[in-house]
UniProtKB/TrEMBL annotation, chain B:
<comment type="function">
    <text>NDH-1 shuttles electrons from NADH, via FMN and iron-sulfur (Fe-S) centers, to quinones in the respiratory chain. The immediate electron acceptor for the enzyme in this species is believed to be a menaquinone. Couples the redox reaction to proton translocation (for every two electrons transferred, four hydrogen ions are translocated across the cytoplasmic membrane), and thus conserves the redox energy in a proton gradient.</text>
</comment>
<keyword id="KW-1133">Transmembrane helix</keyword>
<dbReference type="Pfam" id="PF00420">
    <property type="entry name" value="Oxidored_q2"/>
</dbReference>
<keyword id="KW-0520">NAD</keyword>
<keyword id="KW-0560">Oxidoreductase</keyword>
<keyword id="KW-0812">Transmembrane</keyword>
<keyword id="KW-0813">Transport</keyword>
<dbReference type="InterPro" id="IPR001133">
    <property type="entry name" value="NADH_UbQ_OxRdtase_chain4L/K"/>
</dbReference>
<feature type="transmembrane region" description="Helical">
    <location>
        <begin position="64"/>
        <end position="88"/>
    </location>
</feature>
<dbReference type="GO" id="GO:0016491">
    <property type="term" value="F:oxidoreductase activity"/>
</dbReference>
<keyword id="KW-1003">Cell membrane</keyword>
<comment type="similarity">
    <text>Belongs to the complex I subunit 4L family.</text>
</comment>
<feature type="transmembrane region" description="Helical">
    <location>
        <begin position="32"/>
        <end position="52"/>
    </location>
</feature>
<feature type="transmembrane region" description="Helical">
    <location>
        <begin position="7"/>
        <end position="26"/>
    </location>
</feature>
<keyword id="KW-0472">Membrane</keyword>
<comment type="subunit">
    <text>NDH-1 is composed of 14 different subunits. Subunits NuoA, H, J, K, L, M, N constitute the membrane sector of the complex.</text>
</comment>
<keyword id="KW-0874">Quinone</keyword>
Length: 170, 104
């Protein structure tokens, strides 16, 4: 099944991103993880979120991260490598988090939750595209967070440009 | 239903991605890789939101919330990478341990 293929790709490339010491390999492994997550969004009937994931994450954030790697590392010597520290604590904490989450998910009987049972009869409505519904929702119920998000993006744009400016030479 | 993925499997995938993100944030010492771990955590949270939004086709609150999470993640990445570049120009390294232990 297609979902398990993309889930396996996402987990394997995520694990490679954590395990590798080369920064550029970690960046490209993150690219593969983001693409698999976008494919899983398509399988979950969230086509607009999948396209947004492709445009914002793969097209924007990952390019920014690759720029950050190239501008903050001396590529010619060995410093493009990143050493691992706190290995014992990191593996302990993340394993405990994983075990706790898996135990909680396994203990919860999702099939008996009342609101999931009530909603599963409307599943056929999710077959068509979600673009029109999301557009209507953004302009009616979610118009205040939408405008605040635009303001936040403007603030982040100005702030990032101001911080990254070299102030000595201006 | 042609394509009925069990909800538990999606939640387990997102739990694994979340733990990998935490592992990257704790064990890596290059600031950019820590940011990449944070992006992985954002994606795990978004996967949960979209998975539950599948059972809510009229309201789609989960998908809208995940859209706002993506917007905030983009703004966070831009500002954080600008800060990383300034820190690299100032300390001449992006290694977090060397930045913490260095004087000045």
């Amino acid at each position: 099944m297609l979902f398990y293929f993309f889930a396996a790709v996402a987990i394997l490339s995520g694990a490679y991103m954590v395990l590798t010491r080369n920064l550029l390999y970690a960046g490209f492994a993150l690219l593969l993880t983001l693409l698999s997550v976008a494919a899983i969004y398509v399988l979950l009937f969230a086509d607009f979120v999948a396209v947004t994931q492709l445009m914002v994450y793969v097209g924007g954030v990952l390019v920014l991260i690759l720029f950050g790697i190239m501008l903050s590392s001396r590529v010619h010597d060995k410093s493009v490598m990143s050493e691992n520290v706190n290995k014992g604590w990191g593996i302990t904490i993340s394993l405990l988090t994983l075990i706790g989450l898996c135990y909680t998910i396994w203990q919860t009987k999702f099939a008996s939750l009342p609101w999931l049972q009530a909603a599963s009869t409307d599943m056929l409505g999710a077959q068509k595209s979600t673009v029109q519904g999301i557009g209507i929702k953004l302009m009616t119920d979610f118009v205040l967070p939408f405008e605040i998000a635009s303001l936040l993006l403007l603030i982040a744009l100005i702030g990032a440009a101001y911080i990254a400016t070299d102030k000595q030479e201006v | 239903m042609l394509n009925q993925i069990p909800l538990e499997h999606i939640l387990l995938l997102s739990a694994v991605l979340f733990s990998l993100g935490i592992l990257a944030v704790i064990t890596k010492r290059h600031a950019v890789v820590v940011l990449m771990g944070i992006e992985l955590i954002f994606n795990a949270a978004n996967l949960n939101l979209v998975a539950f939004s599948r059972h809510d086709p009229q309201l789609m609150q989960g998908q809208l919330f995940s859209l706002f999470v993506i917007i905030i993640a983009a703004a966070e990445a831009a500002v954080a990478l600008a800060i990383v570049l300034r820190v690299y120009q100032h300390f001449n390294t992006a290694n977090l341990n060397q930045i913490v232990t260095s004087e000045d």
